[in-house]
Write a structure and sequence with these properties.
By secondary structure, the protein is an alpha/beta fold. It has two domains: 9-39 and 162-320, Rossmann fold (3-Layer(aba) Sandwich), CATH 3.40.50; 46-151, Rossmann fold. It is 34% helix and 16% strand. The chain has helices at 46-60, 76-88, 102-110, 127-140, 155-159, 162-171, 187-199, 251-265, 271-287; strands at 18-20, 31-36, 68-72, 92-97, 114-118, 146-148, 178-182, 204-210, 245-249, 292-297. The strands form two sheets. Strands 1-2-10-7-8-9 form a six-stranded mixed sheet. Helix 2 (76-88) links the parallel strand 3 (68-72) and strand 4. The chain is globular and about 60 Å long.
């Protein structure tokens, strides 16, 4: 039993702070608030989703504590699931790729996960790679006693982000005019938008996708280097009307902004956060002074130290970890 004022590791998920951008935000635009999901225990917003998915499956019997969790992952989801499974003492197998940072893969292993890696095309995220990862995870989940987390299709994933939205609404004193978020599985933007729109029906939801793979906008899939987003197909959780607008952000612009956030705002995050802020700045300029735009720092820059993002490489070149896999 925990003593007064103490908790277990899972109790540290959530209640993340919000900061206002001071230097990269446009002077003639709305204020931009960033919720630091990077301060969750594994450094990612995915901790919320993982706890919801695992505990939901335990509660309704889809997962037995003697069973095994199986999932495909770009890294952060897998790390978060491995964290929750370590706390719940449940084995887990994760299918990932060398397209994603070595820090993420090492973190999964450190938390006790069995990690299966699928080779990428030069370290780039492509539709074909994601499909291969999903197929391999589905094969492994056919083993008796396995629970397939299936983040793209699991409704518990979106539910895990409702508390994030409630926190954000209170921290902004109910003044949010627009919420901006990059789309991978679309579970986060779906969960947050449902809660925020219930609070304020006219609030604008803006989705962000890689400019190189603009499938939500009706374009063709392509390769990019914004980890954790833009799978190259429209995710099952996406639906018409989920977002009021879609912003396309290039890998180069996302990388540049992530580096600026570290240098100018002391916010250390990954490329999806850079993409979020690029899009949030565009929205802030359109809304103008007096409005509030909110977005997320999806994860910590500590997950990307071995990659081109924080080693000064051109974002279109191979990151150091690609040649090591």
């Amino acid at each position: 039993m925990n003593g007064a004022g103490t908790t277990d590791a899972l109790g540290t998920i959530g209640s993340t702070p919000v900061v206002e951008l001071r230097r990269v935000a446009p002077r003639d635009g709305a204020r931009i608030l960033v919720k630091l999901e990077s301060l969750n225990p594994t450094g990612s917003m995915k901790d919320r989703m993982a706890l919801s998915v695992i505990d939901g499956a335990l509660s309704d019997g889809r997962l037995d504590r003697s069973g095994r969790v199986v999932e495909y992952t770009g890294g952060s989801t897998g790390t978060s699931l491995a964290f929750v499974c370590a706390a719940r003492r449940i084995p887990i197998t994760l299918v990932t790729s060398d397209a994603f940072s070595r820090e993420k893969r090492d973190h999964m292993r450190a938390l006790g996960a069995t990690v299966v890696e699928i080779a990428s095309d030069g370290g780039r995220t492509t539709r074909e790679l994601i499909r291969k990862m999903i197929e391999r995870a589905a094969e492994l989940s056919a083993e008796p006693g396995s629970f397939y987390a299936d983040q793209f299709n699991n409704p518990d994933a979106a539910a895990g982000y409702s508390p994030l939205a409630e926190e954000l609404w209170c921290q902004a004193d109910g003044t949010i005019d627009a919420f901006v978020q990059s789309v991978g599985t679309a579970q986060c933007i779906a969960g947050v938008s449902a809660t925020l729109r219930a609070r304020r029906p006219g609030l604008r939801i803006v989705a962000v996708e890689p400019a190189e793979s603009p499938v939500l906008s009706g374009g063709l899939p392509g390769a990019h280097r914004i980890e954790g987003v833009g799978p190259g197909f429209v995710p099952p959780a996406w639906r018409d009307g989920l977002a009021d607008a879609i912003e396309q952000v290039s890998t180069a612009d996302a990388v540049e902004m992530a580096r600026r956030l570290a240098r100018e705002e002391a916010l250390f995050a990954g490329t999806s956060t850079g993409a979020n802020v690029v899009a949030a700045i565009r929205v802030a300029r359109r809304l103008g002074p007096g409005a509030t735009v909110a977005t997320l720092a999806c994860d910590s820059g500590l997950k990307y130290l071995s990659t081109a993002l924080y080693r000064g490489h051109d974002p279109e070149t191979r990151a150091p970890h690609d040649s090591e896999a």
